[in-house]
């Protein structure tokens, strides 16, 4: 067991250590195995048998303590860091929501915000990308490591396992957008855009937008009722969850100024986290 010293974050340190620019697309059979291992981890298994099975896929299983909470961490081994993600699980998770930051290195501060929210112990599990969304490799080729949109990824396997293991849990994705790139006045002035990744809002998306509207000073808009862009409709995680009959997916877009506030303002972050932790299906 690793105990977090005062003013230090073990989770942040482990996530930073897990990052890589060497993304490699996984094989389908590996993802099938990973989904089964994610299900076992969601179920609370933490023993040597599970650790050995994760190791066979190039991952390590460890337990850490932070802010008085015990978390199980699944991350790539140092010699096999191929951008497959960083995953955390809480004990006694019940129907608490699941957090995701699929563009943690590219949508600035979303990874850090999600880690700091998760460390407070209000969420069932979390998932972070560990490679840039898109980058140029040594051969000057563009590598697509966009875990929110790739048709096959460990994040997708994690999400399917979450829907199976935590069917009452919302799955909340944090993203970032640039106001100056928006096509509408609503988009250029929004602080947050909330959607279910589809053409109609869900109860979970409506709850999220309503609560965050009382926390964020900039407008919080619900797609497609109040805004017609950034609805996350092409998001592979959302599409897959809907195909499984789940209404868990909530897509949360945050403008840069809001992300900067959430990074440094602990009181605001607590309010923001309280909204997300309270989302129910």
What's the structural blueprint in terms of helices and strands?
Blueprint lengths: L1 E2 L6 H8 L10 H15 L5 H9 L2 E8 L2 E8 L9 E5 L7 E4 L8 H9 L6 E4 L5 E3 L5 E3 L9 H12 L5 E7 L7 H5 L2 E4 L7 H10 L7 E3 L13 H8 L5 E7 H9 L1 H12 L4
Parallel strand pairs: 1-2, 5-6, 5-9, 9-12, 10-11
Antiparallel strand pairs: 2-3, 3-4, 4-6, 7-8, 10-12
Helix pairs in contact: 2-5, 5-8, 7-10, 9-10
How far do the termini sit from each other?
34 Å
Radius of gyration: 18 Å
User: In which range does the helix fraction lie?
Assistant: 25-40%
Question: Judging from the principal axes of the Cα atoms, what is the shape?
Answer: globular
Query: How many alpha or pi helices?
Result: 10
Query: What is the number of independent domains?
Result: 2
Strands of the biggest beta sheet: in what spatial order? 1-2-3-4-6-5-9-12-10-11
Q: How many individual β-strands?
A: 12
Unreliable stretches (pLDDT < 50, length at least 5) are 1-7
> Which percent band covers the strand fraction?
15-25%
Average pLDDT, rounded to a whole number, is 95
Largest sheet: 10 strands, mixed
Strand-pairing-aware structural class? alpha/beta
Order of helices and strands: EHHHEEEEHEEEHEHEHEHEHH
């Amino acid at each position: 067991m690793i105990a977090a010293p005062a003013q230090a974050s073990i989770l942040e340190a482990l996530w930073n250590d897990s990052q890589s620019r060497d993304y490699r697309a996984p094989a389908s059979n590996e993802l099938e195995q990973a989904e089964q291992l994610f299900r076992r981890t969601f179920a609370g298994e933490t023993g040597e048998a599970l650790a050995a099975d994760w190791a066979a896929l190039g991952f390590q299983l460890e337990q850490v303590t932070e802010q008085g909470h015990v978390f199980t961490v699944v991350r790539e081994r140092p010699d096999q860091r191929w951008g497959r993600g960083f995953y955390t699980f809480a004990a006694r998770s019940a129907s608490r929501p699941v957090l995701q930051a699929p563009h943690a290195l590219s949508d600035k501060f979303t990874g850090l915000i999600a880690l700091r929210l998760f460390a407070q112990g209000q969420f069932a599990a979390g998932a972070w990308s560990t490679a840039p969304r898109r980058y140029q490799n040594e051969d000057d080729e563009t590598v697509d490591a966009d875990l929110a949109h790739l048709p096959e990824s460990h994040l997708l396997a994690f999400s399917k396992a979450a829907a199976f293991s935590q069917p009452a849990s919302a799955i909340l994705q944090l993203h970032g957008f640039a106001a100056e790139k928006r096509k509408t006045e609503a988009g250029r002035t929004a602080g947050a855009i909330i959607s279910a990744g589809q053409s109609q809002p869900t109860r979970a998306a409506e709850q999220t937008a309503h609560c965050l509207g009382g926390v964020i000073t900039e407008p919080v808009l619900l797609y497609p009722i109040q805004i017609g862009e950034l609805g996350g409709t092409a998001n592979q995680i959302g599409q897959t969850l809907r195909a499984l009959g789940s209404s868990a997916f909530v897509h949360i877009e945050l403008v840069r100024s809001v992300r900067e506030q959430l990074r440094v303002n602990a009181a605001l972050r607590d309010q923001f986290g309280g909204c997300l932790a309270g989302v129910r299906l």
